[in-house]
Amino acid sequence: MADREAPEYELIRAPFPMVRKLQRTLPSDYDGPAFIWDIDKTWLDTRISQVKGMLKIPFEFAVDKRALPGTTALLHALRGGPSDRAHRPLFFITASPPFIRKAIERKMLIDGVEFDGITYKDQLEVFRRREFGSLREHTAFKLGALLLLAQAFPERTKIYMFGDDAERDALIYCMFADICAGRLRGDKLVATQVKLGVLQHYARDVAALAEQLPVHERVLGIHINLVREPDGRRVLGYDDRVLGYPSAGAAARVLYERGLISARGRDRVEQVEGAGEVVFGQAARDPKGWWTPPDQLA
Amino acid sequence: MLSADEVAKLVSEVSERVITRVGSRSLAETLDETLWWEQERLRGQDPTDEETLADKQFYADVHRQMQHATPLEQRRLLVQIVDRYTHEIAGNFSPTVYKFAAKVAPPMLSALLTGLSPRRLFGREAIPRLDQHVIIEGETANLETLRERGTLIVTPTHSSNLDSLLIGFAVHELGLPPLTYGAGLSLFRNPIVGKFMHNLGAYTVDRRKRDPLYKRTLKAFTAVSLEFGQDNLFFPGGSRSRSGAIERGLKKGLLGCSVSAYRNNLMRGKPNPDIYVVPCTISYPLVLEASTLIEDWLAEVGKSRYIIVDDEFSRWERWLDFLRGIFALDLKIHIRFGQALDPFGNPVDAQGNSLDPKGRQISARGYLQVNGEVVEDPARDAEYTRELEQRILTEFSRQNVIHPTHVLAFACFELLRRAQPGVDLYRLLSSIGSGRSEQSLALPEVEEEIEALLEQLEQRSAAGQIRLSSVITEAITNDDVAVLLRAALRSFGTYHPKPVVERRGVRLHVCDAKLLFYYRNRLDGYGLRDAPALASFASPGGARHV
């Protein structure tokens, strides 16, 4: 269903209330990378997930929003790819409410961040439903948004995800990876979500959506900005496909080595912020539950 | 700037000069002509307007008195009319208002514009300054010396009503005294700046007045003010470029004042008789009134409005949007001064000596002498003015600073034009359209076109035929089209109510074909990418000033 006021946005009600804009359809034989980014504390230095951050929203203009050092250059580098001209798919998923979409998208325009799609959490609808606990709990929203994107992607798309350690991004992204690979579905997925505070009906809707997704290993990398624990403590419990980075420059060095960005792209990020080294997850890979730490599973 | 006494003398000198010239014609004929033109003008005016009522009363009196007037009385009536015109034209420069405006306006403007964000207003962040956004460059080093040795006429390109304010700012920044300039009536009626225009050195140019006597008075006013040593600002294109192109033809009437003032100075043995013409370009990445101007250009000949009083310039909110865009996006407006010229189009050196094409000093006075005497010869002077025009146009073309918005618009327009060969401009623009018929281009295709365009621009720039803004230079140096594209898209997406071009995924959508054409036209007439000249008419104003 399209938003009547802004028809380029879709109003999505299941598996979770959200508002989405998609501007690109990848060709069915596409097998390259697609990047999915969080916004709050991953790209922008904002705290939308916190009450104080939410209260600041009406007083903040696009020009006031500050990107975390080096992250805009990192987004440019990922978009450009190894050739600097690849226009690689880039999508955002944010728990920010849709009423600040103008400020966010204007900030993207000002910073030259090209994106192919963006999904906002429809906080007003959640509020209207009086599900106040779900206002600050993002698991069902993020999983739902990720699954809908995965449905829109060609099956062989290689997904790389970027989040932060201020919230549960690493856990949610790992759950998504396991869902795609068919390791976390059905009752186990419902129970895990409920354990994390998701309402039963949202958990069931997410699980139902997951069932529609053909089983395939889709996620190739999870990158976590270490804003809360710079030593990467929170990342250690995951396997080595989860990478924590203390600065955009540190992430850029790894992404360059992996052939995802150009040397010029890396250098530009490092010029802004290049301190520190990345931290890799240290848990053993377990084919039956790797990535999602066993203690987090129901 | 002239004192009140000097202004009174100037007014009296103008009246005398105009009346003397009328002497050769029949007084009655001139009066009839004036009455006809003025009554014709007043017929179209708002009948309740106080000024119109006063004018109607005045001309009714003149008409009544004319019936049985003797030649002496006819002369008295003509003096009355010319005096009325001259007083209306003359400004009322106030040094206090000027000093106050020069000191207070730029920081106030900066604070107001950045302070529009509450966070910035109450935060401790540094407020950007106007001088960070207006780049004054080019041959500015000698202007002070030239001013001391003679009188300056600054002749800029004209895109916006903001031009005169920006030149005022530039002149102040360069430490030069204020310039006097002719400003259209629309500026004086503007609710934002109208009240201050006279006090800041402007004199009134009422383009609704078609009476030849008014035009002669206006021209005499300019010439006499130059002879009084008052530095002037002329917009030689006449009015704002409607198409967005730089001027390819100039109004020679006003320009001719430079020769006549120089000649009169020599004939009267004035101590600093030299007149220096300083071409100058003002290049905006975004133009405040672009939408109205291009609409006007595209309107059918004869239907377009020569005088626009209801454009974006008269609306507060558009000013704020425009200036906020300039500040928030860190955009730069370039004011670029070119090579100073003598009234015959010869370049002058740092000391104000005229130079021939080989750089040898020549005598400017010699151009006006016959058998060692300075003589008046209108036909000869008109030819000199044509030479001057050509030199100014060459400088305009050379000093034109290109911004990313111009490059992106040119590239997109060219791709769309080539896709529909043989289609005329109007059909092409309507086919690009908007809404459902909105056309889009693949980003890689646009990037390729921009690359090819940049290659040609780099060559032209190296040959001194055009100037490039810092973002374009950076894109060329680093072989990075993306940086240019980002800059252009953010400019296009922020000020105009509808983005001119918008990126959606990996396609660029043209949302406003007319504005695309307008911004593209800044590169019109350079023969880039074998594109035809679509807007550079070799007529006064260079850009179809109807």
UniProtKB/TrEMBL annotation, chain A:
Pfam families: APP1_cat (PF09949)
Residue ranges occupied by any Phosphatidate phosphatase APP1 catalytic domain in the UniProt entry: 35-179
Family matches, as InterPro entries: APP1_cat
A single MF term (Gene Ontology): phosphatidate phosphatase activity
Identification of the protein by name: Phosphatidate phosphatase APP1 catalytic domain-containing protein
Organism expressing this protein natively: Enhygromyxa salina
Origin organism lineage: Bacteria, Pseudomonadati, Myxococcota, Polyangia, Nannocystales
Automatic annotation (TrEMBL), chain B:
EC number: 2.3.1.15
Catalytic activity: sn-glycerol 3-phosphate + an acyl-CoA = a 1-acyl-sn-glycero-3-phosphate + CoA
Pathway in which this enzyme or protein is active: Phospholipid metabolism; CDP-diacylglycerol biosynthesis; CDP-diacylglycerol from sn-glycerol 3-phosphate: step 1/3
Keywords: Acyltransferase, Coiled coil, Transferase
Domain Phospholipid/glycerol acyltransferase: 152-285
Source organism superkingdom: Bacteria
Segments forming a coiled coil: 436-463
A GO MF label: glycerol-3-phosphate O-acyltransferase activity
Descriptive protein name: Glycerol-3-phosphate acyltransferase
Organism of origin: Enhygromyxa salina
